[in-house]
Amino acid sequence: MKQISKWVSVCFISALMSSLSFSLVASASPAAVVFLYEHGYYQGEEKRVAANPGVSSLGSMNDKTSSIKVRGHCVRVFEHENFKGKSLRVCQDIDDLSKYGFNDQISSIYVD
Ligand SMILES: [Ca+2]
């Protein structure tokens, strides 16, 4: 009887492991859509960026973002291009990046 319950729990665990590895594969390429704004409170120039999974440079919006919206996944924003320098994890909209010491600094973005 003890042997059977052990066998059942082994089956259960391996079923759990295979569903876990499936979900890891399914979420291997998370993507986020990010809206960058020139001014606080989502004002001024807007740039829409797809982080799939990363954006190594921001072109015209480099060092200009003052507020940010994120959709689909959390992202990490970086001070420098190619995901370098200090960073900040963003999981919700931020109306004023100066609250986090990040006004006019974002240069690259990666899903996180
Ligand atoms: Ca920068």
Commentary on this structure:
By secondary structure, the chain is an alpha+beta fold. It folds into two domains: 29 residues; 80 residues, Crystallins (Gamma-B Crystallin, domain 1). The protein contains one helix and seven strands, in the order αβββββββ. A hairpin with a 3-residue loop joins strand 1 and strand 2. The longest helix has 25 residues. The chain is elongated. The mean pLDDT is 86. The structure holds calcium ion. Calcium ion binds next to strand 5.
C-alpha end-to-end distance: 46 Å
**Rg over C-alpha atoms, rounded to the nearest angstrom:** 20 Å
Assign the CATH topology of the largest domain.
Gamma-B Crystallin, domain 1
Enumerate the strands of the largest sheet in spatial order, edge to edge or round the barrel. 3-7-5-6
Considering the protein shown, what is the CATH homologous superfamily of the largest domain?
Crystallins
Give the helix level as a range of percent: 10-25%
Average pLDDT rating:
86
Low-confidence stretches: none
Number of helices: 1
Largest sheet geometry? 4 strands, antiparallel
So what's the CATH class of the largest domain?
Mainly Beta
In CATH terms, what is the architecture of the largest domain?
Answer: Sandwich
Domain Beta/gamma crystallin 'Greek key': 73-112
Family: Belongs to the beta/gamma-crystallin family.
InterPro entries: Beta/gamma_crystallin, G_crystallin-like
Protein name: Beta/gamma crystallin 'Greek key' domain-containing protein
